[in-house]
Design a protein that fits this description.
Elements: H1 37-53, H2 65-71, H3 91-97, E1 106-107, E2 121-124, E3 128-131, E4 145-148, E5 153-156
Parallel strand pairs: 1-2, 2-4, 3-5
Helix pairs in contact: 1-2
């Protein structure tokens, strides 16, 4: 993107080093901002690139192509669970990250929990030992939540991994 750079720009309008446009004021001798082809070309191509990245074809007969592009799956995609990059986050990603599990299996027999099940919330309906996956194979930030309808449930750690336990009662 390019900011306006003509001599008649409004200096620092949006902060230091961030010029903008002005209509000018003839009574005080302030001229309106002169326009430049490079600025318009940059704005045009930035917007066209967004439409095209979303799979659209630039069409002068409609005025909703940028909005359609922003709403398309090709522009803002839900990152993989536990993605810790600086990609834009969709509401689906945020909702999953703040505690909505990717799945909520009901377990009717004790078993080992798989690394691929990290992030799930389990309802345990059988007494016995449920073994957690090794911490080394679970993505950073993953949580595994257990709720039980029976007594005699044991949550076992893998190897010498430490457990961070939380309990809710109500």
């Amino acid at each position: 993107m390019r900011r306006i750079s003509t001599a008649t720009k409004s200096v620092d309008k949006f902060g230091v080093g961030k010029p903008g446009f002005t209509n000018g004021n003839p009574s005080t001798g302030v001229p309106a901002t002169d326009l430049e082809d490079q600025w318009f070309d940059h704005v045009q191509e930035e917007l066209c690139a967004l439409v095209e990245a979303a799979g659209g074809v630039v069409d002068g007969s409609t005025r909703t192509q940028v909005l359609t592009a922003l709403r398309s799956a090709g522009v803002f995609q839900t990152p993989a669970q536990f993605d810790s990059t600086t990609k834009p986050a969709t509401t689906a990603f945020v909702q999953r990250a703040i505690g909505n599990a990717s799945a909520a299996p009901i377990l009717s027999s004790a078993r080992a929990i798989l690394a691929s099940e990290a992030g799930d919330s389990f309802l345990l309906q059988a007494a016995g030992t449920y073994t957690l996956p090794a911490l080394s194979v679970v993505p950073d930030g993953a949580r595994i939540l257990f709720a039980s309808t029976v007594s005699g449930v044991i949550i076992s750690r893998a190897g010498t991994d430490n457990l961070l336990l939380g309990a809710n009662s109500g």
